[in-house]
Amino acid sequence: MGVSISLLFVRGRQIADILAGIDLATTGEHRSAPLNERGAFVMVALPSGFDLIWSNTCDERRFSTNALADLSAGSEVIVLAVEEHVMFSQAEVWRDGRQIWALQHNGDVDATNLELSGDLPPLFDTLCVEQKDLAVEHQDFFDIPVKLVADITGFRYDQNYDWETADTYTVLAVTASASATRPFWKFW
Known about the structure:
Strand content: 25-35%
Structural class: alpha+beta
Radius of gyration: 17 Å
Strand order of the largest sheet: 2-9-3-4-1-5-6-7-8
Number of strands: 9
Largest sheet: 9 strands, antiparallel
Shape: globular
Number of helices: 5
Distance between the termini: 36 Å
Order of helices and strands: EHEEEHEEEEHHEH
């Protein structure tokens, strides 16, 4: 079993504006780690200057292309989606309303599958060379999007940090405006 998450990193914009834009609000409840329930949300201000919103859903609909374009207006937004049990990872960087780069690994296709677009950072080439130099059974292309995001934001979802305390993560709730909309599967 593995995690199924989407992480939204934002820098350069007030977190209250971001939360309002994706129909989430703080609850006042705090945790030492992200919640495990599917569909749960938490947030944290990272030492790197990024705010992180953690969703326990890999395909979080609040982090759609249209939402990312809106959320990145005047700021930098990074999304990392991970579905470990099928070895899927995807990273996107957005600035000022447009996508700068995107990188996706789909382990269902093959172990070395990478789909990319835009101007990836120089670290991408280094990570690819490192993986290609390894024996096939030790290659881990799944980790390349994860490492790129960690390099930019200073955060990996699968590590513990000394700055994490009993109240590091703030639990988020869906706002009334989002609750009032019909479920995505109802088209009538």
